[in-house]
Design brief:
twelve-stranded antiparallel β-sheet; mainly beta; about 5% helix; single chain
């Protein structure tokens, strides 16, 4: 991806546009064998916290390729810091997961990428904010303990109110 420019307002408006409820569909694939691991279907919510932050929480049903199923969930804290959108493991903003520098490429697509080293496992991640209003997060995780690809599509829940009129 070749980025052309990043207007100063991108991170601020992006955080505002994410506010509200989403449904998501996630697929997990083993990077060594290329076999599917499982899927997760669920809902996510971005709740504003302060003028430059949002709490992200998700809940879903994981179905393993082997036939098992269980409830899955997670949470992060998103914070706009200047022209960057930072994603933390905690609301205290002490454990950074990703620092995104969202930019618009030559085709007008808004996207960002970042990497995170978790002990010896590396998370290479890309974020694409689609013109349709949906967005995609892809993680490729490689290391001695993990080797998988996670692909998640987020779509706004039909009829779900947003806290901003700004579209992603």
């Amino acid at each position: 991806m070749t980025t052309e420019h990043q207007p100063l307002w991108v991170a601020e408006h992006l955080l505002a546009a994410l506010q509200g409820e989403w449904r998501f569909s996630r697929s997990l694939q083993d990077l060594v064998t290329r076999n599917p691991i499982g899927t997760v279907q669920g809902q996510a919510r971005f709740t504003p916290e302060g003028s430059c932050g949002a709490h992200y929480a998700e809940s879903g049903q994981m179905v393993l390729q082997s036939g098992g199923a269980f409830r899955a969930g997670g949470s992060y804290f998103f914070s706009q810091q200047g022209t960057d959108l930072c994603i933390y493991f905690d609301a205290q903003q002490q454990r950074l997961f990703h620092r995104l520098h969202p930019a618009i490429d030559q085709d007008g697509q808004l996207s960002a990428s970042s990497s995170h080293l978790c002990i010896a496992d590396r998370y290479d991640s890309s974020y694409a904010f689609l013109r349709s209003g949906a967005f995609v997060i892809e993680h490729q995780v490689r290391g001695p303990h993990k080797s998988y690809r996670s692909y998640t599509l987020y779509e706004r829940l039909a009829g779900a109110p947003t806290t901003s009129s700004t579209a992603v």
